[in-house]
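pinned: reference chain
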Amino acid sequence: MRALLFCSALLLALPAAAADRITGRAFATRSEVIAPQAMAATSHPLATQIALDVMKAGGSAVDAAIAANAALGLMEPTGNGIGGDLFAIVWDPKTNRLYGYNGSGRSPKSLTLAHFRKLGLDEIPPHGPLPVSVPGAVDGWFALHDRFGRLPMADNLAPTIRYARQGHPVAETIAYYWARSVPRLSKWPGFAAQFTLDGRAPRTGELWKNPHLADTLQKIADGGRDAFYTGDIARTIDAYFKAHGGFLSYDDLAAHQGEWVEPVSTDYRGYDVWELPPNGQGIAALQMLNVLEAYDFSKIPFGSAEHVHLLVEAKKLAFADRARWYADPAFQPAPVAKLISKEYAAERRKLISSDKPLREVQPGTPRQLQEGDTIYMTTADADGMMVSLIQSNYRGMGSGMAPPGLGFILQDRGEMFVLKDCERKPAHPNCYAPGKRPFNTIIPAFITRDGKPWVSFGVMGGAMQPQGHVQIVMNLIDFGMNLQEAGDAPRVQHEGSTEPTGRNTMMSDGGVVQLEAGFPYETVRALMDRGHKVEWALGPYGGYQAIARDPESGVYRGASESRKDGQAAGY
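pinned: its C-alpha cells
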C-alpha cells in the first residue's frame, strides 16, 4: 500500500526532514553509496546487481546499462520494455565528450489523419492499436553497443533470459501498479494470457516468469538487431496488428532507424547541464534553469514560498514554449538555440511577478525566436564511462497490445500526437502524420563541470521530468544537498500548463501547485496568499537515480530515492 500515496519512509520522514533542513541537518533516507571502481543505480535491486555483474565480467557501462534495461523490461513491465522507446546520454572517457541517442519510433505509415477523422476522434485513445508507434528500444541497445560495448550482446541479455525462465519475486511498488493496470488492459488481445496469473496481477514477493520474453530475448541475442526488426518477431507483430485492426506493420519495423544526436546544454552557475533536443522535452529544463539563474537562492531557503513560487513560474514559461515548439524536428525543427539562450530567458523572466502567479502564458513569438511511466537508470565503469538512460512504454504498461508468444507489450506513445485543427495552416508542430515521431516525455540528463563529468541523473514521470530535473540541479548546486538528499527532498509539481498534445485549452487559471509532504504549512499559506492554488500531492513524484564522479579521485557516489523499489550499488 505504500505506493498508494507515498513510500513509508517519506510518510514518516518528510515533515521532520524538512525541519532538519531548516536547522542545517541532512535530509536523506540513507547515506550516499560510495565505491571506487563502478556504480549502478536502477529502479530494481536485481537489475542493479546484473549491471554490476556485467561490469565485473569486463563489460563497459553501456553493456551494463543494456543488461539492466533488459532486466527492467522483465521485472518492471509497469514502466518499460522492448515494446517502448529509449533515449541515452553517454560520457566517453576516450574522447572526453558526451554522445546522445534518440531511440524513439515513428507512427505507422498506413495510419492517416483521415482515418482518425473517419472514426470521429479528436484525441488518440490511450490504449489499443491506434496509439502504437514503432518501438525503438532494441535498436537503441544495438546502436549503443556497436559504439561502446565490449561484451557480446548475448552475455548482456543472458541474466534476464535466466530470470525470465526461472522466475523472480515481484517488488512492492511494481506489484501495486501492475494490479492497477490489469483491469484496464486485460481486454486487449494477448495481455491477460501473458501478463496475469489466472487473470490477476502477481502479488508482492510472488515469483513471476515470462518464458515468452525469454524466447524473444534469445532470438535477439542470437540474431542481433535484425531479429527484432526484420525477422520472425517483426512478422509476428505484423500479423497480430492485421488480425486486430491495427496499423503497425512489418515495413514500419524494417524501416526504423534511431539516430545519434548532439546533446544541448546551458551553463547554470558554472555547471553545464545537458539534455537531448526535441522531439523530447529536455530543453524545458534548460529553459527553466536559465530563468531561475537570475535569482540568488543563497538567500532564498529551500521549501520557502519564494523558492516554490519562482520554480513554478519558470515552469509555466518553459511549458508554454514546450506546447508550441517541441515536436519531431524532421517535420518542424524547433528553434532550440534561441529557446535555450540567456537572452531569451531574460525576456521571458520579465513576465514573472514576485507577488502573484501567472494565470495565462503565451509561447514566445516567432519574431523573438526567429528562425509525456518510465524507468530511469544510470551506470558508470572503471574507465570513467557513464551512461544516463531512460526507457518507457509511455502510459504505464503501454497500449495493452501484446503479440502472442513474444512476452512484451507495445507502447502507446502515439497518444501524444495532436489531432485537433491539423488541417489549418500552419498546423501544430505535433499534429499527427504517418511516419512521424510523436512528442516524447522521456529525457536523460547529465551535468559536467570544467569539461569533466560530474553527475548522470534522471527523474521519472511524464511532465514531471523537466520539473524534477530542475529541482535536482537546484538541490545540488543552490541548496548544497548531497546526491541522496537531492533526490529524497520533497518535490513540487505544477499542473495545468497547456500541453503539446492539444488535450486542453491554453492555461487560463494559473494551474495547480502540488506539494509532496514535507513543505511547512507557512509555505503553503504564503503561496495561497500570493494567489496560487495549492494541493497536497496525490502520489509520489519519482523515482530518481543518480551517479556522481569525483573529478580528482574518480570515486563514484550513487543514489536511488525511496519513492521506488530501486537501489544504488557499486564495487
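why pinned: Residues 31-352+364-478+544-571 form one domain. The longest strand covers residues 85-92.
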